[in-house]
Every structure is written in C-alpha cells, then in structure tokens.
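The material for today's practical consists of a large collection of protein records. A record pairs a protein's sequence with a compact description of its fold. Instead of coordinates, the fold is spelled out as a row of discrete tokens. We will come back to this pairing of sequence and fold again and again. Here is such a record, shown just as it appears in the course material.
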Amino acid sequence: MTNEKMWRLNEIFLAPYMQLATALIGKSREGGGNMFRHQLDTMTILIDYGYIEPVLLKGSIVHDLIEDAPEFNRNQLLSVDYDSPAVYELVLEVSRRENETKADFLTRINETGSRHARLLKSADRISNMISLGFVNKPEFVARYTEETARYVFPIAESVDSNMLLELRNLVESRRKYLGIRETASLQSA
C-alpha cells in the first residue's frame, strides 16, 4: 500500500461502525466463527485489494447488520457520522429484500447495483467462500459454490478482475473437494 493510501486510510474513523457491528457477535456462521468477525474479514479483503473509500469500508463493517440482527435499531446506523446516510444506503443495497430469492438478490446487485455494492458483494463472497472450507455439509458447499459461479462471477467481473480470479480459484478448490469436474455449462457461468 502506498504512503498516500496509508495516510488516507488513517483518516477514516471506523471504530463507531465496529461498535455497531458488535451486535453480530452472537450470530454464528455455517463455517464457524461469528458474523462480527465476518464483517471485519470483508473489510480487510477490500483493503487488501486497495479499496479505501470511507463509505465502502464503513459499509463493509456493518453490511449484514440489517439482515442478521433484525432487533438492531436502524436509526443508530443513520446517526454515526457524516457518511452514515450513504453507508445506510449501501447496506440496504446489499441486503436481501423481503420475499427476494437469493438468485433475484444477486441478479439485482449485478444489474442495478452501484460499484460499491458490487465491490462489497465480491469481497463478502470471497470471505464466505474461504469460510466454506470449514463447512462439513457437501450439499451446502456444492450449492453455494455453484451459486457463486453463476451469480457472483459476473458481479466481480464487472468491478475487479483480481477479485474474480480469487473467486474462480476458490470455486475450483471447492469443486475439487467435492470431486466435481467443471462442465462446459458451468464454465460459461
């Protein structure tokens, strides 16, 4: 990371968003750990790829708060700082809507999502795919892996070719674990 980027990252106040995200500490994940750690992992993936926009990083820290902590008071998210309204909109953009299927949700992000939403969803899925290595339910791993290839590859492709490459590598490793050979139809996904 360049000195300029480190300086800019140093100017972003993330602690208040981390405090809000602690509401996710008791929420477990299929692959182990808890949702709080996943929020921070998603943020570090974005930083690893060189993204240091304040709204994007703040949104990554709380991106699952509305979906996974329904008891959370949304007004708290709207009153953190001057970025709060934009962070809130980003979180809503990457949250599934009521009665929205997973396929419709991912298609919506790909087709109408902002660049920040597509970057956040790509980093989120990288984190999820890494955690998938700790899941012992082959049916779940298979479904999630193929969902990633079909719906998330196009999202990543639209914003960051390196994120796409990492997702492709993660999908390939999960398919190897499952003993699945990639078919022509899956390659086009």
User: Anything to note?
Assistant: The CA atoms of residues 40 and 175 lie 27 Å apart.
